[in-house]
Amino acid sequence: MEDDPDYHYLVTLAHHLRSRDARKSISLSRPRREREKTEVEQFRLNLENNLRASKDMPLFESFSALEKEQSADNTVEAPDAMLDEAAEILIDYISLPAAQTETGRACDTGLPLLQAQRATETPYFINALLRH
To answer: Are residues 44 and 94 both part of a single domain?
Structure first.
């Protein structure tokens, strides 16, 4: 889980957003607010470029290029790190012998059933299942 760049990206972004939300005040100074905005943009650019570098993807030159790529017009579905991690956990559970499961029942039919149910909904889930 710690090795998954998507998961690391998501956790880092969530931590950053929580720390920003925890602030109790906002400066009335325009130069300070502009500096804070620039810092947030730089953080997002660095975080995105770290993710892209870990996936051998081209890096963004500027925050505006990042925004353009992630605009509402961009309809490419991004990988869902939480869903992928849930798939990994489910695969581990399905792979357990019947004696080790909480119900004591075998999970032999679980993987094909999951593949059939999720095939049209989330391709990333299937990719995670098929990796094993």
So the answer is: no
pLDDT digits (tens, 9 = 90+) for 84-112: 777 777 777 777 765 555 555 555 555 55
Query: Residue 36 domain-assigned?
Result: yes
User: What is the 3 state secondary structure string of the chain?
Assistant: CCCCHHHHHHHHHHHHHHHHHCCCCCCCCHHHHHHHHHHHHHHHHHHHHHHHHHCCCCCCCCHHHHHHHCCCCCCCCCCCHHHHHHHHHHHHHHHCCHHHCCCCCCCCCHHHHHHHHHCCCCHHHHHHHHCC
The per-residue pLDDT for range 7-26, each reduced to its tens digit, is 888 889 889 989 988 888 88
**60 belongs to a structural domain:** yes
pTM, entire model: 0.56
